Amino acid sequence: MGTLKPLVDKLREEQTLTHDEFVRLFTDRNPEDSEYMRALAQETAVANYGHDIFLRGLIEFTNYCRNDCYYCGIRRSNDKAERYRLSDEEILECCAIGYSFGLRTFVLQGGEDMTYRDEPFCELIREIKRRYPDCAVTLSVGERPRGTYEAYYEAGADRYLLRHETSSPEHYAKLHPSGLTIENRKRCLKDLKDIGFQIGAGFMVGSPYQTYDYLAEDFEYLKELEPHMIGIGPFIHHKDTPFADMPDGSCEETLYCLSILRLMFPRVLLPATTALGTIDPLGREEGIRHGANVIMPSLSPKDVREKYLLYDGKICTGEEAAECHACLEGRIARIGYIAVSSRGDHADWKRK
Ligand code: 5AD
Prior knowledge:
With 352 residues, this protein is an alpha/beta fold. It has a single domain, classed as TIM Barrel (Alpha-Beta Barrel). Helices cover 44% and strands 12% of the residues. It has a 6-stranded parallel β-sheet. Helix 6 runs parallel beside helix 8 (182-195). The longest helix has 19 residues, at 31-49. The radius of gyration is 19 Å and the shape is globular. It starts with a helix and ends in a 12-residue tail after the last strand. 5'-deoxyadenosine binds at residues 71-72, 163, 165, 204, 233, 235-236, 238, 275, 310-311.
């Protein structure tokens, strides 16, 4: 056994560490202690969720974006990105297909496309909830005014994903052009939580200029925020962005972060993300072995999948929704888990 076992035990017992201890988890990382932490993380996930894996049907409905994040393939200045928007009918068709597979959460994700006004977008949310009252609607459409978030919630949206990307103002400024700030991001997350959403924050592992100090700050911020969901995946370069030549994050470090998060937040909803499955063919299965309990099969129509490219090499871009779903169900079953057909809300959440 390496030297980190006492820290890993402390993390499991107290569900947090000091800043310097978080940093040490990375600087002194070694295979034996990583495996020890992985096993504890998996045990924690199983103690809380059994072998159930929650599925979320992901509908990538627009790749127009007003922002210009240096890492992202659908950034405004990428004029090679072929832009698209799904109509309400197309989005509802994705939901119908997903529902027929047993999916009970629909995630509407898009760039910050300002052509979607509060209405009729809220009417689309209401229509999904009318047709599928037993389903959760998750939104992932970026930074909006508080009033807009309130309107989404009143229309029936249940959850909101908005990764904080990095908690450090200094690091945030290296990933985003001026005008985008971590202060506003944190304001949005706080508003969303106050309004009553189940919220998801998160960050990329191995993003350009990331240090262990920054990662430690991410863990500290998450502890303070206490989100219901945490999305992390490796940074993967995109050829038509300013970070085209930056090194990708690693699978191993992402898995290590997943285990830390599972020990910090025993009941959090923690996806094994598409980026993790892209950087390594068995990344998502490994994610589950490291404490993840959510998978997000894509419901996006086949002809738009290759246009929603945040990074190079994204998997499942040539698949129909049915293939994606069947493939993931099989992968989950083969490692001894079950893809369940339920909303999969966080245990501590009730609609206000
Ligand atoms: N590599 C990995 N993840 C990325 N994201 C955006 N661009 C990339 C990239 N190049 C992530 C961001 C964003 C989420 C939707 O996708 O963290 O919040």
